[in-house]
Amino acid sequence: MTTFTRRQWPKVLIHLRYLGLKGCSIPQDIFKKFSFYNLQTIDLNGSVLDTEEETLDLCDLVIPTLKHVYGSLFFQLPLNWDKHTNLQTIVDVLIHIESVVELGFCTNLRTLVISIDTDLDNERVIIEWQNIKSVLIRTEHLVYLSIGTMRLLPFGGTKDLPCHGKIQKLILNGVWERNICVPSVEMFPTNLTKLKLTRSKLQEDPMPILERLQSLRILYLDYSSYMGTELICLTGGFRNLEILKLLRLPNLHHWDIKDGAMPILRHLKIYDCGKLNVLPELQKVRTLQELTVYYPSHELWEGMQMEGEDVHKIKHIPSVRISRGYLP
After folding, report:
1. Are 267 and 246 in contact (CB under 8 A)?
2. For 226, what's the count of Cα atoms within 13 Å in the CB-facing half-sphere?
3. pTM for this prediction
4. Top-confidence residue, 229 or 6
5. Contact 43/70 with Cβ under 8 angstroms?
6. Cα separation, 110 vs 89, whole angstroms
7. Element (H, E) at 130
8. Are 252 and 278 in contact, with CB atoms under 8 Å apart?
9. 247 part of a folded domain
10. What is the maximal distance between C-alpha atoms in the chain?
């Protein structure tokens, strides 16, 4: 991590468009020292304050030209959101629960990445979710939405996303209600090109629903997103899927790919699915260009070695990587 002293900061920042302080130790009062008349981007990703304070001192800062804010998960960024209506990007900005509704003033948002406070119980999470929904109602131009919580994520599908017609990328990180399944394809925006589910703990195979998302190109089923034992990809499903990643699905032991499923899949990653002992019939997916298997079960490892029972399924793939340790 880089540390700057106050003497090293330039004195004139009037013409500055981009302020990048990623991974830095920065003065808590940095925004009190300079004028940022033309600043468009603030990037504080991974930064920390050089004091023990938990909030950056913005001193009623107003930058009308500001469009993109990448915050830090190590301190609060209490920006006057109602004075920054030109904002298009808000990523990893820690905001007090009482202030979430103020994001509704940023009606030009295209990208919103927000986390619900991990210290809240499920009852308070539901309250904050209502506040987030009131923001989404006003962000009609939203294209990329990511919402995460270590607790319950009371996501209600497109009925919670009035702007869902334009959303193309959706990341949901949090536990859905007990025994919840994906009820219908209408739960997701129709123009979705990327979907990532993490810790959803779905009990029923989501593939028969997700494979009907006609625009979906990238699908990540990450850490404990699915708790069932079997995945089935049906004929004609995932017509436009190009990238599929399965990560830490703890109970998955059988995966069936029917003829004609995923007809243009190019990249497949299977990470730490320890009960998956046999590969699906990947020879049916002739478009595959890359297969990565990380932390396989002992049986799958043996099956993918020379003369193993899975070798005939992957001979057509130009790039195959399998590792019991960390991949680069």
Report:
1. no
2. 26
3. 0.88
4. 229
5. yes
6. 6
7. helix 122-136
8. no
9. yes
10. 68
How many domains does one find in the chain?
A: 1
pLDDT 10s digits, 96-151? 766 788 888 998 999 999 887 666 677 777 777 888 888 888 888 999 999 888 77
Q: Which of 277, 283, 280 is nearest to 300 (CA)?
A: 277
In a domain, 229, yes or no: yes
One-letter amino acid of 200? S
Structure tokens at 233: 């990809």
Q: Which long-range contacts (CB under 8 A, 24 or more apart) does 120-124 make?
A: 120/151, 121/151, 122/151, 122/152, 124/97
Residue range of the domain that includes 244: 219-328
- Whether 32 and 53 have beta carbons less than 8 Å apart is answered as no
Tokens, residue 257 = 């790919």
Measured distance CA(222)–CA(270) in Å, rounded: 10
User: What is the per-residue pLDDT for 10?
Assistant: 52
Kindly state the tokens that stand for 52. 């023990």
Q: For 217-236, what is the mean pLDDT? A: 96
* pLDDT of 302 over the 90 cut: yes
Structure tokens at 15: 């013409």
Q: Is 140 helix (H, G, I), strand (E, B) or coil?
A: coil
In a domain, 291, yes or no: yes
Q: Beta strands 169-175 and 18-20: pairing type?
A: unpaired
Mean pLDDT on 145-170: 80
180, two tokens: 């919840």
> In whole angstroms, what is the distance from residue 261 CA to residue 308 CA?
25
Q: Write out pLDDT tens, residues 238-278.
A: 999 999 999 999 999 999 999 999 999 999 999 999 999 99
Q: Is 77 among the domain residues?
A: no
Q: Return the C-alpha torsion angle 275, 199, 208, 163, nearest 10.
A: -160
